[in-house]
Model the fold of this input.
Amino acid sequence: MSILNRLLAATALAAMIVPGTAYAGGTVEVLHWWTSGGEAKAVGELKKAFEAQGGKWIDSPIAGGGGDAAMTALRARVMAGNPPAAVQLKGPGIQEWAKQGALNDVQDVASKENWDSVLPPVLAAIMKYEGKYVAAPVNIHRVDWIWANPQVLAKVGITEMPKTWDEFNADAEKLKAAGITPLAHGGQPWQDATIFEDVVLGVGGAAFYRKAIVELDQGALTSDTMIRSFDQLRKLRGDVDPNFSGRDWNLATAMVMKGEAAFQIMGDWAKGEFLAAGKKPGVDFLCSPTPGGAFNLNSDSFTFFKVKGADRLEGQKVLASLIMSPGFQETFNLAKGSIPARTDVKLDKFDSCALKSQADLVAAIKSDSLVPSMAHEMAVPRTVRGEFLDLVTNFFNSDMTSAEAVKQLAAGVKRAQMQ
Ligand code: BGC
Done:
């Protein structure tokens, strides 16, 4: 018997001994970028819950905060005709892939479970393509947060979190005078863009943010308000340590934990890191929104790519239903730092930062000051986002003036829109 035949025979035997390969809950390969301490804990909950339903989980983590590396990997997989069954994807990205016909819808699950009645309409709209759900949201993350180490603040007599950028700048001066790094930051384009959009929100408010960053209005992009936003970003550049370049966001969070820096401006996945390290909110770390009185929205969701085979199709449905189940939304978000996407999940077990997030979200919806994050792929197509990221990073790493920055930004955005 040739080696090949022996191998085939062995495989046939194995198939007889282990009857079939289909799992009760189906099989899913899941592509995601949750690799930091808090993120891994959260995605571990999803894996555990899926396996508890008899499913087989094939993990495909692609490291890199903000998901840029994961999106590159996804494109390669789709080009090769071999997409993963479930992919962490967000905002306009969902629409872009759906438009290309790459996604299966999960409308039958959504109808059966009445997702429309438990999701905020703004989120439901993002999850649908041509009226059908093609994505299931796991959470609501807030991007406009400042995290701080209270012990470090106490060293220079800061007793309250800054409420305006002027207050932040004054605190930063005090910290610098005491030899303390005010701002823990990782110099990666998506992190630069994260602090940039939070600054724009604080300097210009929600209506301005929307005009400039969502509607891409040329007048707003070149306005004095945008110039002042870059001026504030320049100030923040002076608040970071010399080794910020290329640093991962979770290492920046660790600097705050260890008292090596006072503040970090980052979405509430940073809270997932503090919690995973056993830190307590209000005791070991503080949270407060960045200035602006608004809410910068980011939501993680999973899409279901067109795959073949009953086992994998079953896996997609089981996963979609699981993601949207109230129990899972509670467990997952307690670990992730976010709040549930479902509006009917009780928040009794959630901490003060999460409760603040929920209250501010409701208030922002009422006052029309809920804005989608550009840095986290909720606002604009990837090509436009790419222009923002390039320009903001260039600005952060050079001595470009604010006037030059707005000129280049407006031109870049126009270029991307014409593509
Ligand atoms: C995602 C979060 C993730 C963060 C850092 C964001 O874009 O929405 O879930 O934790 O990137 O990787």
Observations:
- Residues 1-20 have pLDDT under 50 and may be disordered.
